[in-house]
Amino acid sequence: MLKIEGLTVNYGGIKALKGIDMDVPEGKIITLVGANGAGKSTTLRSVVGLTKITSGKIYYQGQNITGKNTVDIVRSGIVLVPEGRRIFPNLTVYENLVLGGYCEKNKKIFDERLEHVCTVFPRLKERLKQKAGTFSGGEQQMLALGRALMANPKLLMLDEPSLGLAPLIVKNIFEIIQTINKSGVTVLLIEQNAKAALEIADYGYVLETGNIVLKGSGVELLSNENVRKAYLGIA
Amino acid sequence: MYILRTENVTMKFGGLVAVSDFNLEIKHNEIVGLIGPNGAGKTTAFNIITGQYTPTEGFVFFNNEDITTCSPYEITRLGIARTFQNIRLFKDMTVLDNVLVGNHLRLRSPLLSSVLRSPRYRKEERHMIQKSFNLLRDLGLDDVLYEKAYSLPYGKQRRLEIARALATDPKVILLDEPAAGMNPQESIELMNFIHEIREKFDLTILLIEHTMQVVMGVCERIYVLDHGVTIAQGTPEEIQNNPKVIEAYLGVN
Amino acid sequence: MNIESFFQHFSNAVSLGSLYALIAIGYTMVYGILRLINFAHGDIFMLGAYFAFYCLTLFMMPWWVGFIVAIGLTACFGILIERVAYKPLRNSPKVSVLISAIGVSFLLESLGVVIFGGIQKAFPIPDIFGKVVVIAGISIVSVNFFIPIIAIICLIALMYLVNYTKTGMAMRALSKDHEAARLMGIDVDRVISYTFGLGSILAAVGGIMWGMKYPQLYPLMGLMPGLKCFIAAVVGGIGNIAGAVVGGFVIGFIEIMTVAFVPELSGYRDAFAFILLIIILLVKPNGIMGEKLAEKV
Amino acid sequence: MKNDQKTRRILSIALIALVGIVLFLCNQYLDSYQLRIINLCGIYITLGLSLNLIYGFTGLFSLGHAGFMAVGAYTTALLTMPPQLKQMNFFLEPIVPWLANVEVGFFWALIIAGSITGLIGFLIGAPVLKLRDDYLAIATLGFSEIIRIVFTNLQNVTNGPLGLKGLPPYTTIWWSWGFALVSILFMAYLFKGSYGRAFIAIREDEIAAEAMGINIFRHKILSFTIGSFMAGIGGGLLAHLMGTIDPLMFRFLLTFNILLIVVLGGMGSISGTVISAIVVTVSMEYLRFLDGPMNFLIFKTDGIPGMRMVIFSLLLMIVILFFQRGLMGSKELSWDFILGPKDKTLNLPEEE
Question: Based on the domain organization, do B249 and B174 belong to the same domain?
Fold first, then answer.
């Protein structure tokens, strides 16, 4: 579904990505794990055109989307939930969801989606009129996911959904991600919390300072000593 | 006897507790690491020590002197210098000028005598230039004295930032992710470099780093923060085998 | 001061405050999403008044047609200015954009001198706005009644647009986070144009009514009201529409009432706003209703 | 290497001498209109440099220059006007007694004017320099307007809207260019030295500069005060060139002209400012013909901008949109630039 070939990104002298190749097959959960600063976020930001690519190609459903503008990419079905959630704190939950479905002009379809999001996240339904800024971290993450679902994504990319959340909530979030995936949405997940991510992933890539150093099925990577090494620098 | 010490430092931003009850103790000439996952509060801790933030609670002591409420420039004058996570050089100035700016705080002559180039000022300026040159030579940057800072390759920019911090004659230097964006080879060089400057300038070093190779290789003691809480401290071996740390980094299932 | 003249001043202050509020909203909206002082906003206000003048005198349109055409034209100009002078500088330092804005402002003023002429022009006030109404012994020109009413209508319409339409939500979202807005598929440039359009419409309405209240037009007429309304926006809390309205009334009232009660200070009339600005900036830099914009190290 | 520096110094002295000779010849052979333009060039060099110090080098976007110039102009004028002239000017309301009989020489009047302006800059700067960018711009603009409005109303000190007329034409080429030269040398030496570097560091990155132990606030005030001092002197020179001053002269338009010079010349370039001050001043005069048709439409003053201002505002916009770094960027047209850079090894300042 998504294919990345030789993706290189430099920002002001720093080589954030040094030519990575990745495949995201349809209907799967793919994860990209790695320590801080390994280049995970950069990869996702490049896919949606928020970061300028130095070289390499990105294909989505067989089409080259390299260098296209963000709005077009989002409209074609790739939705990114950015790191730190970035919900609009000054808007209500409902308004956040409306903006999530910004591109959908048909009121009926929009209402159906809203209904759907409310069933997935009953907590949001109760508090549609509340300002999003007053939410806790976990609730904000749910809202961010709900907002993304409003765009009816074909490929949902999640940037560190567990960041700053308590373990119990992380578990909850990961269950929801699995549910979303089961409903037919392809998921590309990047995580620092490698265990949680690899456990639900069909396939995983390990990124270390701009290079993919390991790849394999989730279960495989989970038991791999090298993953631990990549994180803790244990020689 | 600690050269740098924090006592129950807590920092709140609105409802968010960025750092809570942080107790750091660094002895003279130590190299100490501060690690933790994204958003753990490491840079906030740096900003508290260097005076960018005043903590909500707690104290910072430098040589037993309370510096909690000092402003950043006063702290630098006392002898704590720092570098920044996303290199903050004076981009449009030359390499030499960047380092000379680090000398400005020790200048005694008033503005007018610098413009009139009084003998006293000229003596000070000569001294400053000579000192900066020696520093740049020691750090291997003497071949780019008159290049603009922005034109340097990334690794050299990192070095220059350290050189500039050293120019303020610090006793303690705080390095915020010095190895960010470096490849393994450069990281190894950086480790040697950190050891070297400690010997040469009799420094005490506190560093934030994500590249574990560097942290484990260079630090004598490590503090681990997670969600603002200090979850562990100890030698690199202790840290690497501490289940709490592994959990914070690799996550739980 | 007797009760009659007090009411006279009061109605004056209300209508001046309404005009300030209308113009201040344009500053606050643009600042909210672009963090830019649209220095040329005062001149857009001037354009609105002149366009209406020419619609009525040169093209002999009925007044309401003329006003609508003028408002439409002004909105187009507002959008055009953003496209030409601000959009290319979206990634430049803040001050560069501000300089560009100052450039546009001077360009419009000097073009105004060249095209409209430097001499003052008398605004052709339609009869309905020019009547003198006598209520309980106080005679007030009818435009003073229309101004607050029209201002309230505009405000209600604006509040509806900003709070209940998708584009309005997008505007509010942009004021917090451009990137996240793009990730929603929001066309940021279009929303920005829309904002400039709305701001310019309000400025044009303000300009036309200003023309009827103080019936002289000259190319520099936007300068002072522009600065004062920017101050109104800051006083109210920049980025906050309700704040801009409050700020507009505060400045309108201070101006009229101080002069009314302390006539010796009338020469300093234009200075009040600036003094208020400096006090606000030092005491409460985020304004009466503003929220804190934190800066990150 | 020593020789290298010596050559440069000789070249500099030669250049100054050459400018001096040219000015002397101008003074001998040009008519008063042309001389006025040359005078204006000198004054605008001082003014441009003063704003460049504040904005271009220290990064403080201030729009208060017209106000500072007004303070300088009025102070100089009131200090130099002979008592009878004051009496003639203040016919509506007599001048306050403590000013009525003051008469000081031109030079001292300028220095006092500069000092008072500097003091006012200091007093204004202390509160407003905590603000940044656009807020600073609007606050300084506000102060400038307040100064103008106060001057319009202080009938018994400034003669209010009537202004002061018949000021003695003290400003000659030697005064205007003398101060220009002093300003150039001052700036050149300032930015060769440690304080200048600190100012630039503040412009480049305030947080990093503070982390280098620089007391940001003190340095900002210092730069702002010096800049105001220079603006005050420029204002005084301008007053005695024009012969007439009134509060309307010191509107925002005047600040705009100086801002145009700085932006066009390049923020943070001394030579750029010098060149663009001359270019802007000369072309403002040269393009005056564009305003011609306007002149009989409006009153017969030369202060009302028309087509000329269209061109200058377009110029400002073109520069900021397409050549953001201006004529020179932050480079200098120095001897290094002309003769090629010095060698790449360290050059220490000579001992004497």
Answer: yes
Instruction: Among B167, B194, B213, give the residue marking a domain's end.
Output: B167
Tell me the per-residue pLDDT of C189-242, one tens digit each, with 9 for 90 and over.
Answer: 999 999 999 999 999 999 999 999 998 999 999 999 999 999 999 999 888 899
State mean pLDDT over C88-101.
91
- Chain B residues in contact with C296 (beta carbon < 8 A): none
Cβ-based contacts of A233 with chain B (< 8 Å): 211-217, 240
Q: Which of C184, C191, C192, C296 to mutate: most A Cβ within 10 Å? A: C184
Q: What is the pTM (predicted TM-score) of this model?
A: 0.90
Alpha-helical runs (H) found in chain C: 3-34, 41-57, 63-81, 94-116, 127-130, 143-164, 166-174, 178-183, 188-213, 223-236, 241-261, 269-283
Flag whether residue C176 sits within 8 Å of chain A, measured between CB atoms. Answer: yes
Same domain, B73 and B104: no
- Specify the number of domains making up chain B: 2
Domain assignments of chain A as residue spans, ordered by start: 2-89+155-231
* Model pLDDT, residue B182: 75
Single residue among B167, B202, B221 that ends a domain in this structure: B167
Return d(Cα D173, Cα D26) in angstroms, integer. Answer: 9
* Domain housing B49: 1-79+170-253
Domain span at D44? 35-251
Residue D190 lies in a domain: yes
The answer to whether residue D82 sits within a structural domain is yes
- CATH number of the domain bearing residue B31: 3.40.50.300
Q: Does some domain include residue D213?
A: yes
Facing C37 at nearest CB: one of D138, D304, D320:
D138
What does DSSP assign to residue C82? Answer: I
Mean pLDDT in residue range B35-53: 89
Nearest by CB to residue A195, choosing from B214, B216, B253, is: B253
Is B84 contained in some domain? no
Within 38-97 of C, beta carbons closer than 8 Å to D belong to 85, 88-89, 92, 94-96
Nearest-Cα distance to chain D for C127, in Å, is 31
Q: Could you tell me the CATH superfamily of domain A2-89+155-231?
A: P-loop containing nucleotide triphosphate hydrolases (3.40.50.300)
Indicate contact of A with D: 3+ CB pairs under 8 A.
Answer: no
Q: Which DSSP string corresponds to B159-176?
A: HHHHHHHHTT--SEEEEE
**C-alpha–C-alpha distance, residues D193 and D14, integer Å:** 23
Q: Does A235 score more than 50 pLDDT?
A: no
ipTM of the complex in this document:
0.89
- CA nearest to A75, candidates A43, A100, A92, A46: A100
Q: pLDDT band at C294, cuts 50/70/90?
A: very low
Query: What are the backbone dihedrals phi and psi of residue D69, each rounded to the nearest 5 degrees, phi first?
Result: -65, -40
Rounded distance between C-alpha atoms, residue D216 and residue D255, angstroms:
25
The alpha carbon dihedral of C264, C269, C271, C277 has a sign of: positive
The reply to whether D226 falls in a domain is: yes
Question: Where along chain C do its domains lie?
Answer: 23-222
Q: How many CA atoms lie within 13 A of D7 on its CB side?
A: 11
Task: Using only the alpha carbons of chain D, give its radius of gyration.
Answer: 21
Co-location of B175 and B250 in the same domain:
yes
Chain C residue with CA closest to D256: the answer is C102
Residues of chain B contacting A35 with CB distance shorter than 8 Å: 210-212, 249
Q: B31 is written with which tokens?
A: 């190299």
The reply to whether B205 and B191 lie within a common domain is yes
Contacts of A211 (CB under 8 A, 6+ apart): A18, A19, A20
Report the pLDDT value the prediction gives residue C42, as an integer from 0 to 100. Answer: 95
Report if residue B85 sits inside a domain: no
Q: Which ranges in chain A belong to alpha helices (H)?
A: 40-47, 70-75, 93-100, 107-120, 122-126, 137-149, 167-182, 194-200, 218-222, 225-232
Cα nearest neighbour of D268 on chain B: B92
B50 in C contact zone (CB under 8 Å): no
The reply to whether B85 touches chain C by the CB within 8 Å rule is no
